[in-house]
Write a structure and sequence with these properties.
Blueprint lengths: L2 H6 L4 E3 L15 H13 L3 H13 L5 E4 L2 E7 L5 E7 L5 H13 L1 H8 L5 H9 L12 E4 L8 H16 L2 H6 L4 H17 L11 H6 L35 H23 L14 H11 L3 H10 L4 H23 L6 H14 L8 E4 L2 E4 L4 E5 L5 E7 L2 E4 L7 H6 L5
Antiparallel strand pairs: 1-2, 2-3, 3-4, 4-5, 6-7, 7-8, 8-9, 9-10
Helix pairs in contact: 2-7, 3-7, 4-9, 12-13, 12-14
Length: 422
């Protein structure tokens, strides 16, 4: 868009049709372009329509895009050449919203410089959101309208949104125009506000205090700010679903699964860190490759992913499901109780025998036959396993296999009685 066109109508801009997008690349490169696409992808009810729209946009089916306060318009063509008038509406800012946003931008010289360089500082968006002004659209903020008759996002409105993400990468003032102000008006008002702020009387500079006084007051420090709250759910990594063929050695499904698993694990660890008493707990060591594979299998809902993880660890599907069950009862120690057939030394064995005697001191003790660190109750399908950490794990026999029955207990009697298979 040249300066002459912008001068003619500062409240509407028309961008010529963009050439087809290269295959295998995302439509957005900037963080605000990705935020725009998340608003589309997270709110559309039919993901198939969105994917079809992405193919339309990539093929060059979107014509010239008209951008005005509150909306976008373009003609989008089907593969057979049928043209559709397509609109996407966006909520305009109120005067109060603009006053908040421009006040924040004018207060920081770096914000103005970044905007003039066609950059959106993430700090500006965060400060505005904290003040109640959502600069970037969220779920449900993109209102689709198309003459094809669809009431939700159709391939045509999705294609328009994908094309606009490319425009936003080049010029974030497109987003500000959608919110209600043209570039010239915004730049003029920002300059006025920043000039007024620079000329405003300044408070006298703080001359500070003597070093001896500061040293004497060294023990008086302000309290730490409160910790941030725990998000309600793990974050959602971006999709890697594109029309282009991935690199030969890149497994897209595996990468997407691992990204989601990493987000889930980060959320779990943050929840632990924010829980009361976290500082008093002993740190845990890193997981082994086998432990991590079992953990990932426990989180995987896809049958194919679970099968591949089982094969990668040299297990059958049945063996991996058994390992997942043990993991669910006690993570690493629970898995070790399943697979670690160890022999206790004399002192460990003596403590185990003392615990068994104490467990049934007031009643008739079951007949337990020991093989290494496993005690099987005679005439039943129940078993106790002693873990290296000193806890007892209940097991029961099912179809000729020993199956974990529940979490561990410090007392062998409690572990045996808590066995749900009893």
């Amino acid at each position: 868009m040249n300066t002459r066109d912008r001068d003619r109508d500062p409240y509407e801009k028309t961008f010529p049709a963009l050439p087809p997008a290269p295959g295998g690349r995302g439509f957005a490169r900037t963080w605000w372009g990705h935020a725009w696409l998340r608003a589309l992808e997270d709110s559309a009810l039919d993901g198939t329509q969105v994917k079809q729209g992405r193919r339309y946009a990539r093929s060059g089916a979107v014509g010239a895009v008209s951008v005005r306060p509150g909306g976008l318009t373009a003609v989008v063509r089907d593969p057979d050449g049928t043209a559709h008038r397509t609109d996407v509406l966006v909520q305009e800012f109120t005067e109060a919203h603009w006053d908040q946003l421009l006040g924040l931008a004018a207060a920081e010289a770096g914000y103005i410089a970044a905007l003039l360089d066609r950059e959106v500082p993430p700090e500006l968006a965060e400060d505005a959101a904290a003040a109640g002004v959502e600069l970037l659209p969220g779920i449900g903020d993109l209102d689709p309208r198309c003459d094809c008759g669809e009431w939700d996002h159709c391939p045509h409105t999705a294609a328009l949104c994908y094309q606009v993400a490319r425009l936003l990468d080049q010029d974030p003032f497109v987003l500000l125009l959608l919110r209600g102000r043209g570039e010239r008006e915004l730049v003029d008002e920002l300059e006025e506000r920043s000039t007024a702020e620079a000329q405003a009387p300044q408070a006298p500079a703080d001359e500070g205090i003597l070093a001896a006084e500061a040293f004497a007051a060294g023990g008086v420090r302000p309290g730490l700010p409160p910790l941030p709250g725990l998000p309600q759910a793990p974050g959602q990594p971006p999709t890697l679903d594109t029309e282009g063929e991935p690199e030969p050695d890149l497994d897209v499904d595996a990468v997407e699964f691992l990204a989601q698993a990493a987000a889930t694990e980060a959320h779990r660890r943050l929840a632990e860190a924010l829980a009361p008493g976290h500082a008093d707990r002993a740190p845990t060591g890193p997981l082994t490759l086998i432990e991590d594979a079992v953990r990932l299998t426990a989180e995987a809902g896809d049958f194919r992913v679970r099968s591949r993880l089982a094969a990668a660890t040299g297990r059958s599907r049945a063996d991996m499901e058994l390992a997942v069950r043990a993991w669910g009862f006690g993570a690493g120690p629970g898995l070790a109780a399943l697979e670690d057939d160890w022999t206790p030394d004399r002192s460990t064995l003596a403590r185990a025998r003392a615990a068994l005697v104490a467990a049934w001191a007031d009643g008739e003790a079951p007949v337990l036959r020991r093989i290494r660190a496993r005690w099987t109750e005679a005439g039943t399908d129940r078993q106790l396993r002693l873990g290296r950490e000193g806890r007892w794990w209940p097991y029961h026999r099912e179809a000729g296999r020993w199956i974990p029955s529940g979490p561990s207990a410090p007392d062998p009697g409690a572990a045996l009685e808590a066995d749900p298979a009893r």
